[in-house]
Write a structure and sequence with these properties.
The protein has 447 residues and is an alpha/beta fold. The protein has 16 helices and twelve strands. It binds NADPH dihydro-nicotinamide-adenine-dinucleotide phosphate (NDP).
């Protein structure tokens, strides 16, 4: 089996060897999906995984814009349209200086499996720019978004490709992007998700990724007759996903003791309760400050510069910042300190060594493509509401979100449980996500 996987990866490397994050995401899928393909005759001779690894279309474009000093700046824009076998391309836009082809292709590839798992009719895509929103004025952000959309609008549409937010793209950016799309196309359609409530957005969309990650942790714990109540939780990041993961974990009776950003992490032994979280939301979303400022407001907490939170003691870890933020040695430290649940809010936050350490230890470990699918699932619900021209209530959306997260959990059990009852959620998520897309591709012929 190993030789078959190695041979497949060698071929992928010949074409994509300079894209390490993409190679990593493909390797993780190949390890579980290739054995499954070999066991299922219908996929033989179809070269199906190779077809899934190659994007249907990649668009890159110049984004020129003028800053507040009158200087002309140039960034690069991207949209990866990875797979549309089961629905229009769907996936976020990331604005961050590290954005490149490798990162967006890994995100688009993961998105295909994730969207399939949600049970909603959504293909996979991802896009963004190497633009850094940090330190930019609202006017600069607006001018950049407008320039970005003057090219992107040709490639998207409510039945073609529906982008959303990701790192560096929140409600403010979606607003500017949507305004420009509407102006260019002269139509009010659901072409972006994560919109404001008064102009086509869905209740619970901002909360959905973080809430879903915690719902997934709760579902895993339930298989052991346990729950989030009383658990000590490490959260990384302090953006959208981290904030709402903290909120839901706290609501379910857990104590969240860390948050972080790219400068370091804060540790608050008393827990980050609702009042402290409200402070963090104001700090990060309105003042656009740094997490280190938390300790000025709450002096009993401490800030550790340049480090991630994974060497602190906990029961549950929720990585919610970015890819490869949790390495093999961090996984070992977590396990040594008693952590037995990891539910990923970010995309591919654990490197391959960390993933293997969690799987070897047989803890409750959920890969992001399963545990953070609540965000895109609620985006799918936003698309449905836009098509129906209706708004569902908070309770209706939250109930559907819980149902979808439960269904994803069941799908992981279906394909990931072994004869001793242990659930390999990586295997379960990869195979369940693969089957729906692969079957649709087979039905649609070689295109
Ligand atoms: P935000 O931009 O709101 O927040 C990102 C957070 O991660 C910030 O605290 C940021 O800190 C931190 N971060 C980013 N890069 C690094 C880095 N290199 N090292 C350490 N910390 C870093 O993004 P989101 O919360 O939306 O996204 C977080 C993760 O969740 C991403 O992996 C994203 O792909 C994933 N995700 C998001 C979804 C959504 O609905 N928003 C849906 C599914 C997955 P700093 O401010 O210092 O950069």
């Amino acid at each position: 089996m190993k030789s078959k996987i190695d041979a497949f990866m060698k071929e992928i490397e010949a074409r994509n060897g300079l894209e390490p994050e993409f190679m990593q995401a493909v390797q993780e899928v190949a390890e579980t999906v290739i054995p499954y393909i070999i066991s299922q005759e219908i996929y033989h001779g179809k070269n199906i995984l190779m077809r899934m690894v190659e994007p249907e279309r990649v668009v890159t474009f110049r984004v020129a814009w003028v800053d507040d000093q009158g200087e002309i700046c140039v960034n690069r824009g991207y949209r990866i349209q990875m797979n549309s076998a089961i629905g229009p391309y769907k996936g976020g836009l990331r604005f961050h200086p590290t954005v490149n082809m490798s990162i967006l292709k890994f995100l688009a590839f993961e998105q295909v499996f994730k969207n399939s798992l949600t049970t909603l009719p959504m293909g996979g895509g991802k896009g963004g720019s190497d633009f850094d929103p940090k330190g930019k004025s609202d006017n600069e952000i607006m001018r950049f978004c407008q320039s970005f959309m003057t090219e992107l609008y040709r490639h998207i549409g409510p039945n073609t490709d529906v982008p959303a937010g990701d790192i560096g793209v929140g409600g403010r950016e979606i607003g500017f992007l949507y305004g420009m799309y509407k102006r260019l196309k002269n139509e009010f359609t659901g072409v972006l998700t994560g919109k404001g409530i008064s102009w086509g957005g869905s209740l619970i969309r901002p909360e959905a990724t973080g809430y879903g990650t915690v719902y997934f942790a709760e579902s895993m714990l339930k298989t052991k007759g346990d729950s989030m109540k009383g658990k000590t939780v490490l959260v990384s990041g302090s953006g959208n996903v981290a904030q709402y993961a903290t909120e839901k974990a706290t609501q379910l009776g857990a104590k969240v003791v860390t948050l972080s950003d790219s400068s370091g992490y804060i540790y608050d032994a008393d827990g980050i309760d609702a009042e402290k979280l409200a402070y963090v939301m104001e700090l990060k979303n309105v003042k656009r400050g740094r997490i280190s400022e938390y300790v000025k407001q709450y002096p009993s907490a401490n800030f550790t510069k340049g480090k991630t939170p994974w060497h602190e003691k906990c029961d549950v870890a929720l990585p919610c910042a970015t890819q490869n933020e949790l390495l093999g040695e961090d996984a070992k430290a977590l396990l040594a300190n008693g952590c037995f649940v990891v539910s990923e809010g970010a995309n591919m936050p654990s490197d391959l060594d960390a993933v293997h350490a969690f799987l070897d230890a047989k803890i409750l470990y959920a890969p992001g493509k399963a545990s953070n699918a609540g965000g895109v699932a609620t985006s799918g619900l936003e698309m449905s509401q836009n098509s129906l021209r209706m708004n569902w209530t908070r309770e209706e959306v939250d109930t559907k979100l819980r149902e979808i997260m439960n269904n994803i959990h069941d799908a992981c059990i279906k394909y990931g449980q072994d004869e001793n009852g242990y659930v390999d959620y990586v295997k379960g998520a990869n195979i369940a996500g693969f089957v729906k897309v692969a079957d649709a591709m087979l039905a649609q012929g070689v295109v």
